[in-house]
Amino acid sequence: MAGRSDLTEYGYRKARARFLAASDVCHLCGHPAADTVDHITPVARGGAPDDPANWAPAHGVNRCPTCGRNCNGEKGDRPHTSVLTTSRDWYVKP
């Protein structure tokens, strides 16, 4: 989403780094090395942008080194349902 300066603020970047340090397994494809935080409920649909309870690790700009997907880009601004076809359901409901 253009103009999202809140996503570049120091506090958000630090919280995101801590979150990804705890788990870097993409919730969409199930492979490690996730490089971004995906919002479970998209911000455009009312999800809290800075609430870690609304975050899940995902592959973004640096595509998945295992399957090559830009998982967060493929999901887009849709809520997680099973957008990506995988061998099993990797999403763990909070």
Task: Walk me through the structure.
The protein has a domain at 25-88. Helices cover 19% and strands 9% of the residues. The chain is built from two helices and two strands; from the N terminus they run αββα. Strands 1-2 form a two-stranded antiparallel ribbon.
Output the helix-strand order.
HEEH
Portion of residues in beta strands equals 5-15%
Number of helices: 2
What is the general shape?
Answer: globular
Uncertain ranges:
none
* End-to-end C-alpha gap: 25 Å
Structure class: alpha+beta
Query: What's the average pLDDT?
Result: 81
Largest sheet: 2 strands, antiparallel
Estimated helix fraction: 10-25%
The radius of gyration over CA amounts to 12 Å
**Strand order, biggest sheet?**
1-2
- Strands, total number: 2
Q: What's this model, at a glance?
A:
By secondary structure, the chain is of the alpha+beta class.
Write the layout of secondary structure elements.
Elements: H1 10-22, E1 36-39, E2 55-58, H2 71-75
Antiparallel strand pairs: 1-2
How would you describe this structure in keywords?
94 residues; alpha+beta; 9% strand
